[in-house]
UniProtKB/TrEMBL annotation:
SMART domains: Beach. It comes from Goodea atripinnis. Gene3D superfamilies: BEACH domain. This is WD repeat- and FYVE domain-containing protein 4. Pfam families: Beach. The gene is WDFY4. SUPFAM superfamilies: BEACH domain (SSF81837). It comes from the Eukaryota. Residues 1-112 form the BEACH domain. Keywords: Repeat, WD repeat.
Length: 112
């Protein structure tokens, strides 16, 4: 008998939230406490595009939700605390975020 539900996994949990916010305290410590340390660099959150591809095309079991910080706290993409997260084998640094330069632009304010 197949499961009578849309998804057989939870869409949000403490580890999912901490994995998105791992570059900010206290979430880096929360991630380490839940995971037993940092994950291997290839599995660390380093690209919104890669997360989108995973959830929408590549992995139908990936049902994570966007956390509210995506909409109001772009600083979570920065690594202001210089936490050493490693480097993936394809030379992708997970220390910084792929689109962190966008965060530094700030809002455009028009004065009258």
């Amino acid at each position: 008998m197949s499961a009578r539900c849309h998804y057989c996994t939870h869409y949000s949990s403490a580890i999912i939230v901490a994995s998105f916010l791992v570059r900010m305290e206290p979430f880096s410590h929360t991630f380490q406490a839940l995971q037993g340390g940092f994950d291997i660099p290839e599995r660390m959150f380093h690209s919104i595009g890669k997360e989108w591809e995973s959830a929408s095309r590549d992995n139908m079991g990936d049902v994570r939700e966007l956390i509210p910080e995506f909409f109001y706290l772009p600083d979570f993409l920065l690594n202001s605390n210089h936490i050493q997260l490693g480097q993936a084998t394809k030379r992708i640094s997970v220390f910084t975020f792929g689109t962190a330069h966008v965060v530094n632009r700030g809002p455009k304010v028009k004065t009258i």
